[in-house]
Amino acid sequence: MNNNSCNEELLKTFLNYLEFEKKSSKHTVISYQNDLSSFVSHLGNRSVLDVNSKDIRGWISTLSEEGIASRSINRKIVAIRSFFYFLQREGKLQNNVARKVHSLKTKKRLPNFVEEEKMNILLDENIFANNFSGLRDRVVIELLYTTGVRRAELANLELGSVDFGEGSIKVFGKRSKERIVPMLPECASLLRKYIEERAKVAENNTFLIVTDKGAKVYDKFLYRIVHTYLGDVTTLKKRSPHVLRHTFATHLLNNGADINDIKELLGHASLAATQVYTHNSFEKLKKVYKQSHPRN
Questions:
Q1: What structural domains does the chain harbor?
Q2: Which member of 46, 92, 268, 279 is catalytic?
Q3: Catalytic one of 151, 245, 246, 263
């Protein structure tokens, strides 16, 4: 087997490990595949088993010279580290040469979020069409904003995920980790109405959110819904489902919720991932401070 075929086989084995053993999301698997394929292509006819840390740093330098953003390069470095750790674990390598490769420095970016008054305008005024599509779109916005679920989690919700008696939704997050999120009464009422209308267009699948033709929704479909409606109330350049997740967390924190409770609602594995939202709250406090302090 030549080096190119060997590289492809090792990469395929790793991607299968991510998908079937680690239960990584489809988005993660595709992202790792793209990043690692780029690295393997950079090697030419060389085997990944002959690579050293200097080779990896050389690839990183090439990416920087091509104008690739530091955040994007760091994502690729994470993929490389995971790949080489896997190869070491499988006995293909004696040492993980990628472990010595450091991430690039980046400027800290605060999560984008929509202001409360703008979310109230979106949900309280008659913006959504008076048909199935409009009802479905409103459900998408409501669920993303009032539960904080991820886009993939929303797409994979099934009819049985909703418990109207308990006022909750069962969500399967990253690596199929299950969590229960509460559902606001207004959201529950909207969902009941939607499910009644949904029965008229979707008979052959059990997924909660469906297209106009009754098929399961996909990532870009959900993105377009959010991007379109947020464009009616905000000038934010980034208007993705994840922005509504950020908005959910930021609004809870600004209104007194405990950060540990927010961590559980978001399904974060560690508190560090949730603490980024405290920066948004601190920015709000600084604004109030500057406006209110008599010595300012």
A1: 3-100 (1.10.150.130), 116-290 (1.10.443.10)
A2: 268
A3: 245
How many Å apart are CA 177 and CA 238, to the nearest integer? Answer: 28
What are the tens digits of pLDDT across the range 182-234? 999 999 999 999 999 999 999 889 999 999 999 999 999 999 999 999 999 99
List the catalytic residue out of 22, 216, 242, 279.
242
Kindly report, residue by residue over 16-47, the tens digit of the pLDDT: 999 999 888 888 899 999 999 999 999 888 99
Q: Are 159 and 208 in contact (CB under 8 A)?
A: yes
> Residue 242 catalytic?
yes
Amino acid identity at 206: T
Q: In the annotation, is 150 catalytic?
A: yes
Question: Which of 4-8, 87-91, 243-247 has the lowest average pLDDT?
Answer: 4-8
Choose the catalytic residue: 150, 198, 239, 251: 150
Cα 90 to Cα 84, 86, 94, 160: the distances in Å are 10, 6, 10, 39
Tell me how far apart the alpha carbons of residues 124 and 176 are, in angstroms, rounded to a whole number: 34
Q: Which of 32, 145, 229, 277 is catalytic?
A: 277
Alpha helices by DSSP H, the chain:
3-16, 26-43, 53-65, 70-89, 116-124, 132-147, 151-155, 185-198, 219-230, 241-254, 259-266, 271-274, 276-292
